[in-house]
Design brief:
Elements lengths: L16 H20 L2 H8 L3 H8 L2 H8 L6 H9 L6 H14 L4 H13 L1 H23 L3 H20 L10 H17 L1
Helix pairs in contact: 1-2, 1-4, 1-7, 2-3, 3-4, 5-6, 5-8, 6-10, 7-8, 8-9, 9-10
Length: 194
């Protein structure tokens, strides 16, 4: 006797459906970008009915905003960067940023954010909001630096992760963390010293 086929929709017992939908959305937004990741595909990846996606998130835009919430707390990230002498802040910034990006649990979400920022206004707004308010404004206040200096440092780091993790241009893609830190730290230090 075969077990009855499992139907999509609400699963019996404690539900992890919302988390499963978010995980599937992160993967598909990362792989396909906002426009090409459909609610149906996300539901299929999560093993649920598309109606359940709408039940939890309402719309694709709301699902995107929930799924693309940044996977690291800016306070923790900034705490690691700001701890220590100012003369080494460029190195700490490069090392912390690269270490976060190299984490295989976090990378799909970051890649999804970057790809969506390049292709949709929703993604661009999400990334812009996070970078300006959660990171640049806090560092500018803590270090007493002009925002342009911090934006230059951020553009340096974002360019590196774009080439290393998203476009995967060699030799950047296979460069070690130490190699990249050695190249980036002096430039970042110059920006962050004002």
């Amino acid at each position: 006797m075969t077990a009855p086929a499992r139907r999509p929709g609400r699963r019996p017992g404690p539900s992890s459906s919302r988390d499963d939908i978010l995980a599937a959305a992160r993967v598909l937004f990362g792989e396909r970008g906002y426009d090409k990741a459909s609610i149906r595909a996300i539901a299929r990846e999560a093993g649920v009915d598309p109606a359940l996606v709408h039940h939890f998130f309402g719309s694709k835009e709301e699902l995107f905003a929930s799924a693309m919430e940044f996977p690291v707390d800016p306070a923790v990230f900034l705490g690691q960067v700001m701890a220590g002498p100012r003369s080494q802040i460029g190195e700490r910034l490069a090392r912390t940023f690269l270490r976060i990006w190299s984490d295989p649990r976090l990378r799909p979400q970051f890649v999804g954010i970057f790809r969506s920022a390049a292709t949709t206004e929703q993604g661009a707004a999400l990334l812009r909001e996070f970078v300006t308010r959660a990171i640049l404004a806090r560092v500018a206040e803590a270090l007493g630096l002009p925002p342009l200096n911090l934006a230059a440092a951020a553009s340096q780091m974002l360019g590196v992760v774009m080439l290393k993790y998203i476009v995967q241009v060699e030799p950047m893609a296979s460069a070690t963390e130490d190699e990249l830190v050695a190249l980036l730290a002096p430039t970042l230090q110059r920006y962050l010293e004002g």
